[in-house]
UniProtKB/TrEMBL annotation, chain A:
This is Acyl carrier protein. It holds the Pfam family PP-binding. It comes from the Bacteria. InterPro entries: ACP-like_sf (IPR036736), PP-bd_ACP (IPR009081). Residues 1-79 form the Carrier domain.
C-alpha cells in the first residue's frame, strides 16, 4: 500500500503530504485528506495508468476510493479477474 | 447609460445548420445535429456523438472568403458574423463607428494540436503557420480584419458563458458612447483538446444528451458561431427594417463555489437571472420563455433548475435547452443562444427540447418538446453558465 | 466623475511583491527570458489543498490581486476583471503534450480544468467568495486595456463600486521556444539592464501580474484616460492619436511630466519610439519598463503599476529613465505602449 500512497500523492500533487502521513483506513475525501470530485477523477486516471483498470462510471468512485485500503482491495480484486 | 440597445440582426452556423434559417428549419423538423464524429481526427470517433458543422475547412473557407489553412474557429466566426451583418440591411460596414466583440475558448487550438504533434518530436519541427493564430484574440482579429472593423475589437473568454458576456460588453460599449454598432457573440470549433478535456471530467454522454431529463448522464460537444448586431437608439432609426427586439437586461455573476462544479442551489445562476431581470425592470411572471443553459450534466441542470425554482416558483415560463440540438458549443453557445432568443421574441418561437421523457427529481418541470412559432413572447431570457463559476443571463424584450 | 487607483499589487521579475523601497535596485538577468521572482504564495493562499492544483500564472494573479486589495484596505471588490492574452499556458501545454503522447487516453482532468483562460478571475472569486461581476479579456496586446476599459465603464455606470482589475501572463518553456522561432527574442547574449541600448532586432521575453483596485472616491493616483489604436496605417496616425488623446483631456504634450514607453530593445521598434518622442515630446523626460519585466502582451499592466508608484512616491527610480531628467513634481504621466506594431495603447495617470 506504500506504493499506492506514493502514487496518490504524485497524481494529486499533495505537496506537503508524505506516504506515512496517510493512514490505511483514513478517509480520503472530505474530513480525511480533504479530497474532492476532481481528485476522484484523478484517482480513476491513476488506476488506469498504473494498474490498467478502467472505470467507466464515476459514480463507482466514492465506494472504491473510501480509503487506501479499499482502493488496494479493489485493485487486487480486479487484477485477479481473468482477462 | 440606460439608453436602449437594439438587436438589429443575427447569424448562426452550428451543427444543425449553416445559416440561421437553416437552424430554425432543423428545430421545426425536430432534427438535432448530433452524429458520429466526421471531420475531427480523434480516437473518440464512434464513441461520443458530437454536433459538428457539416462541412470541411475548404468548404467553410470558400463560404467565409478566407484562406482554408486558418483556424476553423475563425472560419465559423466569419460566416456567422457576416450573416448577422447582412441581415441588418445597414449596407457598407465601413461607414459606421462599429465594434467586433467576439468570445471564444479554444482560439486556434485546432491548428495548435496539429503543430504540437510535430513539435513534440523536435522543437524545430512543426509549421509555424499553424500556431500563428493560436491566441483567442488572433481568431477575433482575423475576422475583424476581414470585415474591416477597427474601432473596438475585443475577445472575451469566460468558458461557457463567454458569448453572453460579449453581448453584455458590446451593449455597454454602445451605452458608454464608444461605438454605435457592435457585432457581438462567440465562436468555437470542436477540437481534440476540448473533447478530451471534457472526457477527463467524465461528463460526455455516449448517447445524444438529454438536458433536464432525469436520465441525463452528460453533454455532447458541438461547434459553431453565433452573433447578433447590437445598435444604439440613434442607429435604430436608420435601420431599413424594424429591429428584432431590445436587449433589456443582462447580468454577470460568479458562483464562487468550485472550479468546475455548480453550487447545488445554483447561487450564481440565481443571481445572474435576478440581476438581468432587475435591470430590465421586469417581474419573473413577465418572462415567457427561458433558453436554458441546459448542458445535460447531472450537476449543471439540477443547479439551474433549483435557481429557476427559487426565482420563478410557482409559475414557470416555457423552458428548453437548444443544446439538445446544437450540442454544447462552449464559447459560441452564449452567442448562438442569444440569436435564437432574440429571434424567439421577434417571431414568437418556443424551441423544442429534444429527447425529453422523464422530469428530473430536483426540479420536476417539463421543458417544451415541440417547436412552435407565432407565440406572444414579450420577454425571453437566455442563460449561459460556465466553468470557474462564470454565470450570465440576458433578457430580450419586444419593446 | 474621477477614477482613482486605490490599491495596487505587482508580481514581476523585479522585487515588486515584497515590502521595500520602490525599484531601488534593478535586478539583473542574463539571457532573453525574465522569470517572475516568485513570492511565497502561501501568505495569500494558506490552504494547501487549494494551492496544489494552481498553475504558476494563477498564483501570480492571486498574489498581485491580494496585494492590491490589501493596499486598498478592502476584502471584497464589486467586480473582478482580468486581462490575459495567453491564459494558463503551462497547464495548456501539459494537457496538450499528454494528449498527444498518450494518444488521447488516460488523461488527468486537472491540467484541462486549469487551462481555461478564466481560471485566474475564477480562482480569485473562489478565494474571496465573491459573487460579483467576473470577466476575462483575452485579446493579445489589448487584453489588459480591454479589462481596464470594462472597469472604467462599470464605474461610469455605477460610481459607488470598487473594481479589482489586472493583467497577467506567463511564459513557459514551450511558449518561449515557439515564440523564439518567430524571431521575437534576441539571439545573442543579452543583459536586461543593457537592453535599452541594444542595436539588434528582437527583445527579451517576460511575464508577470499587476492588479489594481479602482474606485471613484479619493486615492493617491487618478486614472485620467485610456485609449487604444488597433493596427494604425502609419506612424502619423499614431502621432495624431496621441495628440488627439491629450486634447480630449485638454492637455498638450508639454503638460506631461514623464513619458513611459514600451521601448523593448528591438532596434526597429525602438526607432519608432525615438522618432515619436523627439517629435512630440522633445522636452519630456522618458522612462522605460520592459527591461524590468520583459516583453509580454499584458506588460502595460506593469507600466501602469510603475507609473502609479512614481506618482504616489513622487520619485522616478534612476534605473528606469532613458532620456532627460525627471522633474521634481511628477503630476502627470503618459504611458504609451505598443505591442508588435499592431496594438497601441495610451494610459494617462495624474496625481490626485
Amino acid at each position: 500500500m506504500a506504493d499506492l500512497k506514493a502514487q496518490i500523492i504524485e497524481q494529486l500533487n499533495l505537496q506537503e503530504v508524505k506516504p506515512e502521513d496517510i493512514g490505511n483506513d483514513q478517509p480520503l475525501f472530505k474530513e480525511g485528506l480533504g479530497l474532492d470530485s476532481i481528485d476522484a477523477l484523478e484517482l480513476i486516471v491513476l488506476l488506469q495508468q498504473h494498474y490498467g483498470i478502467r472505470i467507466a462510471n464515476p459514480e463507482q468512485g466514492p465506494e472504491i476510493f473510501q480509503s487506501v485500503r479499499t482502493m488496494a482491495t479493489y485493485i487486487t480484486a480486479q487484477q485477479k479477474q481473468p482477462g | 447609460m440606460s439608453e436602449p440597445v437594439w438587436i438589429a440582426g443575427g447569424g448562426v452556423i452550428c451543427g444543425i445548420g449553416a445559416t440561421l434559417p437553416a437552424c430554425v428549419e432543423a428545430f421545426s423538423r425536430m432534427q438535432p445535429g448530433m452524429e458520429e464524429v466526421q471531420y475531427l481526427h480523434t480516437i473518440h470517433r464512434g464513441v461520443f456523438p458530437v454536433a459538428e458543422v457539416k462541412a470541411d475547412n475548404a468548404t467553410l473557407a470558400a463560404q467565409a472568403g478566407m484562406p482554408a489553412h486558418i483556424s476553423r474557429t475563425a472560419l465559423l466566426s466569419k460566416i456567422a458574423a457576416q450573416e448577422a451583418w447582412d441581415s441588418t440591411g445597414l449596407g457598407d460596414l465601413l461607414q459606421y463607428r462599429i465594434g467586433f466583440i467576439s468570445a471564444n475558448t479554444v482560439g486556434g487550438m485546432d491548428k495548435t494540436e496539429d503543430f504540437f504533434a510535430d513539435y513534440l518530436q523536435h522543437p524545430d519541427k512543426g509549421r509555424l503557420q499553424q500556431v500563428l493564430h493560436h491566441e483567442c484574440g488572433s481568431v477575433t482579429e482575423l475576422v475583424a480584419d476581414a470585415m474591416g472593423i477597427r474601432h473596438q475589437v475585443a475577445t472575451i473568454s469566460t468558458a461557457c458563458s463567454s458569448g453572453a458576456n460579449a453581448l453584455m460588453y458590446g451593449a455597454r460599449l454602445i451605452r458608454n458612447n464608444i461605438v454605435d454598432i457592435v457585432i457581438a457573440g462567440g465562436t468555437d470549433a470542436l477540437t481534440r483538446f476540448t473533447l478530451n478535456g471534457f472526457n477527463t471530467l467524465m461528463i460526455l454522454d455516449q448517447q445524444p444528451c438529454r438536458p433536464f431529463d432525469d436520465t441525463r448522464t452528460g453533454l455532447n460537444l458541438g461547434e459553431g458561431a453565433g452573433y447578433v448586431v447590437l445598435v444604439s437608439d440613434v442607429m435604430r432609426k436608420r435601420l431599413p427594417n424594424a429591429p428584432w427586439c431590445r436587449l433589456s437586461g443582462y447580468a454577470n455573476t460568479s458562483d464562487a463555489y468550485h472550479q468546475t462544479a455548480s453550487s447545488p442551489d445554483g447561487i450564481g445562476n440565481y443571481l445572474a437571472m435576478k440581476g438581468a431581470l432587475d435591470m430590465s425592470g421586469l417581474q419573473p411572471k413577465d418572462i415567457a420563455y427561458i433558453n436554458l443553459h441546459g448542458t445535460g450534466t447531472q450537476n449543471n441542470d439540477s443547479s439551474e433548475g433549483k435557481a429557476i425554482e427559487r426565482l420563478f416558483a410557482p409559475d414557470y415560463p416555457a423552458v428548453s435547452s437548444t443544446k439538445s440540438f446544437t450540442g454544447h458549443t462552449l464559447g459560441a453557445s452564449g452567442g448562438i443562444e442569444a440569436v435564437f432568443s432574440a429571434l424567439a421574441v421577434q417571431q414568437g418561437i418556443i424551441y423544442p427540447n429534444a429527447r425529453f421523457a422523464t422530469p428530473m427529481k430536483e426540479w420536476p418541470v417539463a421543458p417544451a418538446t415541440v417547436f412552435s412559432s407565432g407565440n406572444k413572447l414579450s420577454h425571453v431570457m437566455s442563460n449561459s453558465f460556465g466553468f470557474a463559476g462564470n454565470c450570465s443571463s440576458l433578457v430580450f424584450s419586444k419593446e | 466623475m474621477n477614477i482613482y487607483i486605490q490599491g495596487m499589487g505587482c508580481v514581476s521579475p523585479q522585487q515588486t511583491a515584497a515590502e521595500g523601497p520602490f525599484l531601488a535596485e534593478i535586478r539583473e538577468y542574463e539571457g532573453n527570458r525574465l522569470k517572475v521572482l516568485d513570492p511565497d504564495y502561501k501568505q495569500w493562499i494558506p490552504d494547501a489543498n487549494t494551492m496544489r492544483r494552481m498553475g504558476r500564472v494563477v498564483k501570480m494573479g492571486i498574489g498581485a490581486a491580494k496585494l492590491s486589495l490589501q493596499h486598498a484596505g478592502i476584502e471584497m471588490p464589486d467586480a473582478i476583471i482580468t486581462g490575459t492574452a495567453y491564459g494558463c499556458l503551462a497547464d495548456t501545454g501539459v494537457f496538450l503534450t499528454r494528449m498527444i503522447q498518450r494518444q488521447e487516453s488516460a488523461l488527468s482532468p486537472t491540467p484541462f480544468i486549469q487551462s481555461t483562460h478564466n481560471t485566474v478571475s475564477g480562482q480569485i472569486a473562489l478565494l474571496l467568495g465573491c459573487h460579483a461581476y467576473n470577466s476575462t479579456f483575452v485579446h493579445k496586446g489589448f487584453s489588459f486595456e480591454s479589462a481596464l476599459l470594462d472597469s472604467i465603464m462599470l464605474l461610469r455606470e455605477k460610481t459607488e463600486q470598487q473594481i479589482l482589475i489586472g493583467g497577467v501572463d506567463e511564459i513557459t518553456d514551450h511558449s518561449h521556444t515557439i515564440l523564439s522561432r518567430f524571431g521575437l527574442y534576441k539571439q545573442e547574449p543579452v543583459r536586461n539592464t543593457a537592453l535599452l541600448q541594444s542595436t539588434t532586432k528582437g527583445t527579451i521575453a517576460g511575464e508577470g501580474a499587476a492588479f489594481f483596485v479602482l474606485g471613484t472616491t479619493k486615492g493617491a493616483v487618478k486614472l485620467t484616460g485610456l485609449d487604444t489604436l488597433y493596427k494604425p496605417a502609419s506612424q502619423q496616425e499614431v502621432s495624431s492619436a496621441i495628440q488627439g488623446f491629450l486634447a480630449t483631456h485638454r492637455l498638450s504634450t508639454a503638460d506631461i511630466d514623464l513619458l513611459i514607453t514600451g521601448r523593448n530593445g528591438n532596434a526597429g521598434e525602438d526607432a519608432a519610439y525615438t522618432q515619436l518622442t523627439q517629435t512630440l515630446f522633445p522636452q519630456t523626460a522618458a522612462a522605460a519598463f520592459k527591461h524590468l519585466c520583459g516583453e509580454y502582451p499584458t506588460a502595460s499592466a506593469f507600466a501602469m503599476w510603475m507609473g502609479a508608484q512614481i506618482i504616489q512616491q513622487q520619485q522616478a527610480p534612476a534605473g528606469i529613465l532613458y532620456s532627460g531628467t525627471a522633474p521634481q513634481q511628477l503630476n502627470r504621466i503618459l504611458i504609451y505602449n505598443q505591442y508588435q506594431g499592431t496594438h497601441h495603447a495610451l494610459i494617462l495617470l495624474e496625481k490626485a
